[in-house]
Amino acid sequence: METKKLSSFNLLSDTHTALTRLPKSFRESVCHECGWSEATFYRKARGKNTFSNAEKEKILAVTDDLLKSVLEQNVGYRQR
After folding, report:
1. How many Å apart are CA 80 and CA 75, to the nearest integer?
2. Given Cys at both, which of 14, 29, 43, 80 links 62, Cβ 3.0 to 4.6 Å?
3. 32, 39 contact by CB (below 8 A)
4. Which of 48, 44, 4, 15 is nearest to 27 (CA)?
5. Residue 49: phi, psi to the nearest 5?
6. Minimal CA–CA distance to 18: which of 29, 2, 38?
7. Is residue 63 a contact partner of residue 26, using CB atoms and an 8 Å limit?
8. Which is it for the CA torsion 18, 20, 21, 26, positive or negative?
9. pLDDT for res 75
10. What b/e readout covers 66-79, taking b as 16+ CB neighbours within 10 angstroms?
11. Percent of the chain beyond pLDDT 90?
């Protein structure tokens, strides 16, 4: 999972940038963790596919990690 440090000290700009990066980071991380292509990701997202327990766990873990990274950024601003 790719995490880029934000360079500015602008809370609004940094938060907006972090949130707009989430969809791409989520897709890339899920594809990597589940061994899917981008096409498979979108096909599974569109359809009524069932997921294995392992896939469910990986999707939830990716979600948790990405949201935690945004929360950690917020903690950094609170400490300033």
Report:
1. 9
2. 29
3. no
4. 44
5. -70, 150
6. 2
7. yes
8. positive
9. 87
10. beebeeebeeeeee
11. 69
Structure tokens at 20: 């707009």
Residues 20, 66: Cα–Cα separation, whole Å: 12
Q: Tokens at residue 57, please? A: 């766990």
Q: Is residue 56 a contact partner of residue 44, using CB atoms and an 8 Å limit?
A: no
Separation CA 19–CA 16 (nearest Å): 5
Counting runs of H as helices and runs of E as strands, what totals does the chain give? 3, 0
Please give the single-letter amino acid code of residue 71. L
pLDDT in tens, the chain (80 residues): 444 555 567 889 989 999 999 999 999 999 999 999 999 999 999 988 789 999 999 999 999 999 999 999 888 888 66
